[in-house]
Design a protein that fits this description.
277 residues; mainly alpha; globular; single chain
Length: 277
């Protein structure tokens, strides 16, 4: 049986998005042909980076979360100590450095820059009208990190970078929906808060749908039957995001957003040979 403090620590890492981003990166590594060792290197580096980001987020926001009575947060609920979460964030960030260099120094610098941007979001960028920028840049360079680890250090095609950036931006607008009111009460005013719940849903839907369309249409060779099926499924999920978000089921909207991301990974896999040219 897993000890309760370990479960609480895992929850403080923002477990769902941590697993989702790590899975996306691992799928990209498989798609471009990084091989077993290279794929494991990508997976471990991204996992460490995401854990550090999630833990630093809960640690830095602990006072705001207390004021907002966020008892769903492990630190506020008292199921894990703030010091434990803070130490875990630092350990994960330190581990992320050598793990990133397993893919070579070029890839490592890109990935570490992405993780630094995510930490900058936690440290204060989330409270500005530019809150979406770390998401756009961090997710946008994820394919770059993966392909730079290949022999010859190729860059990914433009559509891979654009699609990843669009997915990241869309995820930002959906992820904040459930916390808009609590955030407002404690003074957080990121871009989604300025746009509002309805505006954020519209923006998120456009961004997510655009990402899927780019992945389906832009690569050479056409979409094919599988691509069409994935496109229709993903667009249906985007509609579901809007419906869930507009009917008070923000967590459901977030789960559907992760489903869109999963289908996008499938589209990346379908175009694997074109990702490293």
């Amino acid at each position: 049986m897993i000890p309760l403090p370990a479960i609480a620590l895992a929850r403080a890492s923002h477990f769902q998005p941590t697993v989702a981003v790590t899975t996306i990166a691992t799928g990209l590594a498989v798609a471009v042909g990084r091989g077993f060792g290279g794929t494991v290197a990508v997976m471990l580096a991204v996992l460490a980076g995401q854990l550090s980001v999630g833990w630093s987020n809960d640690y830095l926001d602990r006072d705001r979360d207390r004021r907002a009575h966020r008892t769903d947060k492990p630190i506020v609920a008292g199921t894990v100590k703030a010091r434990t979460v803070g130490i875990a964030a630092i350990v994960a960030a330190v581990a992320c450095v050598p793990l990133s260099f397993l893919s070579g120094w070029r890839a490592a610098l890109v990935h570490l820059a992405a993780v630094a941007l995510a930490w900058a979001y936690n440290a204060g960028a989330k409270n500005t009208m530019f809150s979406v920028v770390p998401y756009v840049l961090s997710f946008g360079v994820l394919p770059v990190f993966v392909t730079l680890g290949l022999p010859g250090h190729p860059l990914p095609p433009w559509w891979a970078v654009v699609a990843a950036a669009l997915l990241g931006a869309g995820a930002h607008f959906v992820n904040t929906l459930a916390d808009l009111d609590d955030d407002e009460r404690v003074g957080i005013r990121g871009l989604p808060h300025r746009v509002g719940a309805r505006g954020s849903l519209v923006v998120a839907a456009v961004l997510l749908a655009s990402a899927v369309l780019v992945l389906t249409i832009a690569p050479s060779g056409g979409a094919g039957p599988l691509g069409i099926v994935l496109l229709v499924s993903a667009l249906g999920a985007v509609v579901g995001v809007v419906v869930a978000g507009s009917t008070g089921h923000e967590r459901g909207a977030w789960s559907l957003t992760l489903y869109v991301a999963g289908l996008s990974v499938a589209l990346f896999l379908a175009h694997g040979s074109a990702l490293a040219t």
